Amino acid sequence: MSFLLERDALNGKEGRAIITVNGSQKELFGCKNVKVDYSLDSADFKVVGTRLVQKKTTGIQLTGSMTIVYGTPTFKQMVRDYMTSGTPPYFTLQVTNNDPATSVGIQTIVFYNCRLNSGSLAQLDADADFLTEDIGFDFTSFEILSSFHDPAQLGGN
Asked: Is the pTM of this model over 0.85?
């Protein structure tokens, strides 16, 4: 039986996130975490002759969230621009995992038509050593620019 060796477990700190807003790229240097998810929608499918209730996939939801160090003005400005112009707050997000200590390579995925849907406009906290803010978004498409590959070596008995 083969298993993954610890040296190929990815360090979550090794990577970067870049957003593009109105053609201008900005590295999210104060990014603490990014998580991009999918959820498959389904509907019950019932037929005569069985009590089994099957599930039929009917769609997909693409969402994401990130926590950044408070003080990044980009997202607040996007909300302000929406309020004054009516132009919805969209951006492109590129996330790269690049842990040079592993043998699985680099993964880069770009998420398109990210629509900002939640965040923080102002904060104060007497108990906080530093402030962070959570940003929520959904998106319509993604592209895998580079993908991980199998580890160079596996453990075994």
From this structure: yes
